[in-house]
Amino acid sequence: MLHASALAHDDLMDGSDTRRGRPATHRALEAEHRAAGWRGDPGQYGAAGAILLGDLLQGWADELLRGCGLGWDVVGPALEIFDRCRTEVIAGQFLDVSVQARGHADVEAAMTVLRYKSAKYSIERPLHIGAALGGATPDQLTALTRFGLPLGEAFQLRDDLLGVFGDPATTGKPAGDDLVEGKRTVLVALALDAASPADARLLDGALGRALSDQEVAILRGIIDDSGARAQVETVITELTTRALAALDASGFDDAAVVVLRELASAATQRVV
Amino acid sequence: MLHASALAHDDLMDGSDTRRGRPATHRALEAEHRAAGWRGDPGQYGAAGAILLGDLLQGWADELLRGCGLGWDVVGPALEIFDRCRTEVIAGQFLDVSVQARGHADVEAAMTVLRYKSAKYSIERPLHIGAALGGATPDQLTALTRFGLPLGEAFQLRDDLLGVFGDPATTGKPAGDDLVEGKRTVLVALALDAASPADARLLDGALGRALSDQEVAILRGIIDDSGARAQVETVITELTTRALAALDASGFDDAAVVVLRELASAATQRVV
Predict the structure, then answer these.
(1) A2: which of A129, A160, A205, A218 lies 20 to 30 Å off by Cα?
(2) pTM
(3) β-strands A18-19, B22-23: how paired?
(4) Exposure of A218 by Cβ count < 10 A (0-12 exposed, 13-18 middle, 19+ buried)?
C-alpha cells in the first residue's frame, strides 16, 4: 500500500505515461477530463487526482499495518521501522530528483540514491517489518541488514542494467527507458567516468530526452564499451555473494534460509 | 503537521503561487531551479519537491501523534480518529476538485465539500483527537460533534465570505481570491441559484480566470444583490447558535466551556 502510494506520486513526478502497460494514474484522470470536456486544465486535474490518491494510500498503508490485529508489543516496533522506511525512501527520492536536476551524479551519490530509494525500501526494511511482526531480536534485525542491504543493492543494480539493456518485450518498458528518463544511475555514473571524453559527452547530452532506437543502440554501445556494464555485473555478483555469506552466518533456521536464498536468486538473476 | 503536509500538496494542486505572503513550496523550489540554471523543467522539479515534502510531513504527522508519549490506551483511539480525519479531508478535497472540473456544484454538493474538507477537518476532528487523548467517553465525543460540526461549517462559510469580500490588506490574499481560483463554494452556489439568468451567466463564466479589480467589484455586486451574502450570514448565525446551544447542553465543566466558547467566537467572527 505504501508502495502503491509511492507509485502514484512517482509516476507523476517522473512524468511517466504508463505503469505496467496501463495509463499512469494522472494520465488516466487527465484522459477522463479531456474526454468529458470538463473545465480547467486536464493535466492539473490528473495531477490533483494522483496526488490525492497517493495521499490516501499512504494513510491507508499506515492504518492497515497498525490494524493488522497483532499485539501492540510487535506492531509498535514494526511501525517504527515503517516510519524510518518511509522517511528513507522520500529522502532518497529527493536526492535522486536533486542530482538529476544538477545534471551530475558521481558514483558515490548514485550509490546513496540506490541505497535509500531502493535497497532499503525494497528489501532490507520489508524484511525488518516482517521480522518485527514475528518478534525478532535486535541481533536478528542486524543479521537481516547484513543479508538484505547488499542484496537490495544488487537488486537495484540489476534493475539499472535492465533499464538500459532490457528487452522491451520482457520488461514491458520502452528500450533504454532509464536513458530517456535521464536517470543518473550507478551504471551511468560509471560509464561517464570510464568512457572517452567524446563518448561521455554524447551520453551525458542524451540523458533525459526522447531517443530513437538507433540512438539507444549507440548509447548502449558506449556504456558496454566503457566497461561499466561488466563492472556492474561484477559488483552484483560480489554483493550477492556477500548477502549469501551473511545468510549462512545468520543462525536463522533452515526454513527461513531456504526462502531467503530464493529471494536472493529472484532479486538478482531476473530478466524483468 | 498533517495540515502542513496538506498545504504543500494543496498549493500545488491549486496552482497557488503564495502561502501567507511567501512563495508556495513548489514555487520556491521552481525559482531555485531556475536561478541555478539546472537541467530539466523547473516546474516539474518544484512539483516533485512539493509532493515529496507533503509526503514526508504526512508521515511525520502520524509519527508525532503515535510517539507523543501518552499510553497506547489513549493514543490508539486518537489515531483511529486521525485516520478517519485524513481520509475525510482527502475525499472532500477530491470532491472539490471534481465539482470544479465539472463546472457545477449545487448547494448540497458545495455543502458536502465544506463539511468534509473543512468543518470536520478544521474543528470537529481536532476536538475529537484532543478529547481522545484526554480519555473522553463516547458521549463526550458525540457532544463535541454537536458543537464542532455546525461551528466548523460556520467557520468555513465565514471563510467563503472572506474569500470574496475580504480586504486583501487584512486577509493577505488577493481581492476575490476564491473567484479567481474558481472555487464552487456554498456562497457561489447560492448566488448562481438566486441571481438573474444574465448575472448567473456572468458569474459562472468568470469563475477560475484572472480578474481585474473592476471585474471583482462587479462579481461582488452580483453575489450581494442575489441575496446570497445575506443568506450565508444568516446561516452562519444559525449554525453558531446551534453550536453554542450544544455546548450549553454538553455537560462539560466550566473551564472547557469557556475555552470552547472563545473558539466559537474566534472561528465565526474573524476578519482574516
Answers:
(1) A160
(2) 0.90
(3) unpaired
(4) middle
Q: What is the dihedral of CA B171, B173, B175, B178, to 10 degrees?
A: -110
User: With bands split at pLDDT 50, 70 and 90, how would you rate the model's confidence at A229?
Assistant: very high
pLDDT of A271 reads 67
Is the pLDDT score of B172 beyond 80?
A: no
| Cell numbers standing for residue B156 | 468555513
Question: Tell me, what's the ipTM?
Answer: 0.90
CA distance B246 to chain A (A): 32
Beta-strand pair A22-23/B22-23: unpaired
Q: Which of B33, B52, B87 is opposite residue A94, by nearest beta carbon?
A: B52
| Confidence at B234, pLDDT banded by 50, 70, 90 | very high
| Structure confidence at residue B1 (pLDDT) | 59
Instruction: Give the integer Cα–Cα distance in Å for A42 and A38.
Output: 8
Using a CB–CB cutoff of 8 Å, tell me whether B92 touches chain A.
no
Band of pLDDT at residue A235, cut at 50, 70 and 90: very high
Residue pair A33/A75 in contact (Cβ under 8 Å)? The answer is: no
Contacts of A90 in chain B (CB under 8 A): 52, 55-56, 59
Q: What is the mean pLDDT of residues B93-107?
A: 90
State the pLDDT at residue B272. 59
* DSSP letter for each residue of A185-197: -HHHHHHHHHS-H
Contacts of B210 (CB under 8 A, 6+ apart): B180
Measure Cα distances from B136 to A111, A162, B129 in Å.
50, 56, 9
**Identity of residue B135:** G
Grid cell 509526503 in the structure block, residue: B55
